[in-house]
Amino acid sequence: MGEPGSNLLTAGKITGCYGVRGWVKIHSYTEPVENISRFGRWQLRRRGELQDVLFDQWKRHGKGMVAHIAKVDDRTLAESYRGLEIVVEADRLPGLEEGDYYWRQLQGLQVWAREPGTEVDRVLLGTVDYLIETGANDVLVVKASAGSIDDRERLIPYLPGDVVSRVSLEEERIEVDWYLDV
Length: 182
What we know:
The chain is mainly β. It folds into 2 domains: 8-92, RimM (Elongation Factor Tu (Ef-tu), domain 3); 103-177, PRC-barrel domain (SH3 type barrels). It contains 2 helices and 13 strands; from the N terminus they run E-E-E-E-E-E-H-E-H-E-E-E-E-E-E. The strands form 2 sheets. Strands 4-3-7-1-2-6-5 form a 7-stranded antiparallel beta sheet. Strands 11-10-9-8-13-12 form a 6-stranded mixed beta sheet. Strand 1 (8-18) and strand 2 (23-28) form a beta hairpin. The longest helix has 5 residues, at 75-79.
């Protein structure tokens, strides 16, 4: 997840030790989980400060990942990394095809809606606060903002071409066809 005004993204978290030779368990926020191993430069956040770290080996383990921290060869030292966030630079993310977006790009965009089948002007529902992964499709969590039609929070399926009719990063706007139950 992105950090406001920053080029840094939290890509995962060290959740514990794995074995006795400096390996750690990692909960990856990337999709697929293996993508966390592909950034090539990682930092750890410890008490608000960032420190460089080198993971020299990665393995898939169950639903997550395990990694070896270079020059950490015992469990006691590895334990000191438990709970630290793994941070990467956003510009290390691979480019996407046109029409595809990272969640962080959608957060903060205004959501404008019009009822399907009508030609009524679009109305502001609010801004994208965050997204939820449901398995079937992602969901935009839209919170009321200055100028929105009401104070409601809405959950809107992120279905391009169906519910989502247009995304413009330049205009900081998402247009949706959505029933306005006001």
